[in-house]
């Protein structure tokens, strides 16, 4: 029993009929719930025809059967309704009735009812005039037929003054941009042919390198693109290294990296449009590097660095009539429609579309992908539960008022979050940036002064840092770096000959002279920064010195030592950390707190504050700190993204819905609970290797299965494997931690708290009042320890109270009534003398009881071993594994789940089509008399003399440059890269408008094209769509434009604020760099004796040519 409404939680209790789903959805939207507290005035909605919707009726509320998030699942039938949209978008279009961006799209993404009426042919009409107008705008007469490509072409300049064409902005932005009109490029004809194919005779070197950009600026953009894709711009990914080491020389690595980064630049600038092979090859500067470009393209494609997410990729093989040999078509089954499962299935669909020829050439058909999902909705642990009362919403029209039962925070979009492309680049979902303006209320309702809060926080961080010396060493990977200087200046080396990397590595030959930049090397993870989902990030202080005694550190923080205490006193954690087999973070830190108490006078309030920070870690890890491995709890350290944390307006679930529906629906079978998997690991087995049996009696046969069920489900053993999973897999499932975090969601009619504060914290009393023993706080510290104010994203006055650590388990075992009474009492104390009413709606999650989750997310438990996340991910025969618990770099997150889906898709594709093939030779011999870098450079590009080429340098210069390089090294080592100038706001109103209307407009343009050509499969080119959009924008009323103009203004304001802080950081960096330079020269005088020149010079790095590098 896990649910208030036990009868409704049984998936079987729901009728399968789509009619009922439609009916249910109509009812869902027509319900206007009472405002009274459900706990006071039970009120049944007898009109709801299905038991599955009873949860809307709090009249069914029953103390003895606590509610669970699973309840919500049964209501959210919107996902199961066949919308009948083609490519997820209704065919007719009218812009004017839409009052806010994304409305049309949002209606699909947020599951809002549009009262679709399927007419059986897959095309549904809509009868919701409030949202749609059936008058269709036609553009066909005005659309000039032009080429289209990832980058706009020169011909776009003709309309440069119109708002339909984006103004040129050379600064890359974290929000991917549409094409830039002033970049003159070779047109790439887009047709419905496979994007990954192309005639080599049509490829042109340099065609994807805009002539209007200087090499430095171009390099800057490519470097940022690589960083935004979680790749080191200056080194091969370990997998690239393995792939290339036998085929390339060290110098060719630089060429490869330049090409690879340039391809990423194409993708990150506009992830609405896929990158074609032709465009990718156009990133090579010389024809002989086309092979390198093809490998880079294929590698990025297969591994989900480009062309991923909701991008419409033509599938030319789909139209070919099925002529499968012996009727054999492979089937890939993905179990679970959470972020990992949908991410994997969407990626497989995209890759299969691009690789379809592999099967068609053999007379077959590309494999099909089926997703089996236990619930009646997509999203899994991303679930935005619709509120009973949708009236008086404060969020934009078209968005549903929802409460986040699971994931809620996007932890920064910048520097590598794949959700950036999905949320901002492709789906255009609005979000709200969170401000770190938490205030803390003490247990009696008084507000903790900021200065005291900071003082205790510093102490907490100090102990955390001292405990971090027991951290496992991060794994190192073998790789090869390119020539950093050349890459920074956008140059290829002139001479790329020599022995291959593997030959050099296997011989005793010394590595090339420039060993710093081309030698094989290892990469290490950085050692600072801890990502937290909560309001506060624990940033380990740069320069933390473990040799400083704890007492000295305490004095430096502002604490006073107890009378008689000595500054030499320090913490001795070894006893706790080394004396037990499985030391935990919590026990070790508590031991540290106890030792601090010997020389500083900690009061009960300090203990409450310290334990609040424990609770915050317990939120981030979904487990008590006493269950976290001391050496591995933060094994993902260093992989954090950047940028503000945000919440999705109208519900995070729009993201998985988008993945499911855009550009066209995936084949998801809802309410299909897998109960057993029979599999055969014999590679030569001549039939379907896997048989999946479901509780509804259905049996699916497949060649490969990707299992994305949560770790909790695997631990529970609710899925039977025949034969059982091997010991290594079963053992890791047992070793890994899977914790629980719960939420008490409270909806009110009026906010009684500060509406502009995104969150506030609450300190809890110990079990024994005013205790000075930190252990006495563990049970209570997570009780409502943090309240999110989600009024800006949920549309209604709503507080989300978190139950972390032991409190999460308490929530599972307590009744709704008890929890609501308890939290109301706490809120009354906090907001006294204001009156705090009972909430009008409450939703309480109980993730541990959810049979399809069995908990919230994974954590590193004391017995978890280094590398266990990778072992979780490792395939076994035809079984592949994805899900957040298989993503060691970003576990327990939505983006981690998504990345794991991309990884699993790559593995499945490799098993289907084999590993990437490397052309032989990969790099053709240099043709004599051909000028190295300029043979294909269009006239327009101004090539400055290359200062990095040995030919243009004399020996003296070389020596000085080497010396200069060591100074740069010293500077970088000490203070890192020079701060990068923040990009401009990077958005303009038309860009935002384009994101919303692209697919809508595309539908219309496609339709017009079909009419014009009589070809039922004809599609409009990207340029046609762009022009049509320009026209629409010009014709749009001010009312339609306003939200876009407003958003742009807001972004500009933010950018201005960032620019101000940048100036300060820059000045401080410059000062430090000058100091380090002087010190270096003093300590290591230059060989030639020209100190003065060197002393007064500044390198390119110091002048800002180098970019901030995220150390990967
Ligand atoms: C309370 C809470 C708060 C969170 N907060 C954040 C946050 O703020 N930010 C963040 O990034 N992440 C957060 N997370 C984590 C994030 O939600 C997850 O990491 C991510 O959604 C997991 O995705 P997944 O695809 O791995 O698993 P899931 O989303 O769980 O998907 C697995 C799917 O498998 C299905 N399934 C299970 N068993 C079966 C079966 N037998 N047959 C068929 N299907 C089955 C499930 O129904 C589910 O749809 C939070 C999670 C929770 C619970």
From TrEMBL:
Residues 111-120, 151-195 have a biased composition (Polar residues). PROSITE patterns: SWIRM. It is found in: Nucleus. It holds the Pfam family Amino_oxidase. Its main location: nucleus. Belongs to the flavin monoamine oxidase family. Keywords: Coiled coil, DNA-binding, Nucleus, Oxidoreductase. Residues 111-133, 151-204, 498-530, 929-953 are annotated as: Disordered. It comes from the Eukaryota. This is Lysine-specific histone demethylase 1. GO terms for cellular component: Lsd1/2 complex; mating-type region heterochromatin; nucleus; pericentric heterochromatin; subtelomeric heterochromatin. One of its GO terms (molecular function) is histone H3K9me/H3K9me2 demethylase activity. GO terms for biological process: facultative heterochromatin formation; heterochromatin boundary formation; mating-type locus imprinting; pericentric heterochromatin formation; silent mating-type cassette heterochromatin formation; subtelomeric heterochromatin formation. The keyword Coiled coil applies. Residues 222-317 form the SWIRM domain. Residues 506-521 have a biased composition (Low complexity). The keyword Cell inner membrane does not apply. Residues 1045-1079 form a coiled coil. It comes from Lojkania enalia.
